[in-house]
């Protein structure tokens, strides 16, 4: 009987947070992403809008990445702020996770590559003109399409913002 409980506990542990990803078929490692791949206009996907406050006032949230390593983002500097992500600290609804403030923001961007023994991970930092930094935006690839993701918590939960290049 004890072996059954141990086996059940082990199976539960494996199934609880097994590294599954919110969307299958996404390449998360060894992505050959260059600065040229980033340059252009990236729009927030429709699914992401459910996590935004004040979303009814906006029909398009975008980030424009320029070849001189600068960016321009409409509608919110606070879109990624951890302070704005109070959903995970309180019992608020998902509608209050990220804040839109109708502010056009500018700054610089930087791509990071973390080299591991068997693979590498690519991420993106945004350095705003006021010197505040949003680090760790994830760069993924599905088929031939690159994507920029920002998770509000556990990636298994699917609570995220995703930008797709136009």
**What proportion of the residues form beta strands (DSSP E)?**
35-45%
What separation lies between the terminal Cα atoms? 58 Å
Largest sheet properties: 8 strands, antiparallel, barrel
The number of distinct structural domains comes to 1
Give Rg in angstroms: 18 Å
Shape: globular
Strand order in space, largest sheet = 1-3-4-6-7-8-9-10
Strand element count: 10
Low-pLDDT parts are: 13-21, 84-92
Helix share, percent: 10-25%
What is the typical, i.e. mean, pLDDT?
76
Explain this structure:
By secondary structure, the protein is mostly beta strands. The chain is built from two helices and ten strands; from the N terminus they run H-H-E-E-E-E-E-E-E-E-E-E. A hairpin with a 4-residue loop joins strand 3 (62-65) and strand 4 (70-73).
Question: What is the gist of this entry?
Answer:
The chain has 166 residues and is mainly beta.
Write the layout of secondary structure elements.
Blueprint: H1 2-16, H2 35-38, E1 40-44, E2 52-53, E3 62-65, E4 70-73, E5 98-99, E6 105-115, E7 120-128, E8 133-142, E9 145-151, E10 160-165
Parallel strand pairs: 2-5
Antiparallel strand pairs: 1-3, 1-10, 3-4, 4-6, 6-7, 7-8, 8-9, 9-10
């Amino acid at each position: 009987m004890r072996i059954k409980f141990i086996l059940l506990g082990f199976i539960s542990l494996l199934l609880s947070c097994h590294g599954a990803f919110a969307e299958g078929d996404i390449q998360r490692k060894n992505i050959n992403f260059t600065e040229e791949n980033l340059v252009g206009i990236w729009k927030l996907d429709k699914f992401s809008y459910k996590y935004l406050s004040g979303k009814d006032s906006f029909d398009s949230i975008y980030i424009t990445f320029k070849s001189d390593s600068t960016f321009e983002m409409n509608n919110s500097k606070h879109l990624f702020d951890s302070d704005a992500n109070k959903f995970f600290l309180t019992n608020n609804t998902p509608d209050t996770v990220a804040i839109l403030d109708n502010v056009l923001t500018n700054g610089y961007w930087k791509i990071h590559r973390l080299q591991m023994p068997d693979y590498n991970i690519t991420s993106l930092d945004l350095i705003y003109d006021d010197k505040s930094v949003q680090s760790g935006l994830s760069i993924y690839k599905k088929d031939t399409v690159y994507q920029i993701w920002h998770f509000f918590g556990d990636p298994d939960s699917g609570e995220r913002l995703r930008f797709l290049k136009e």
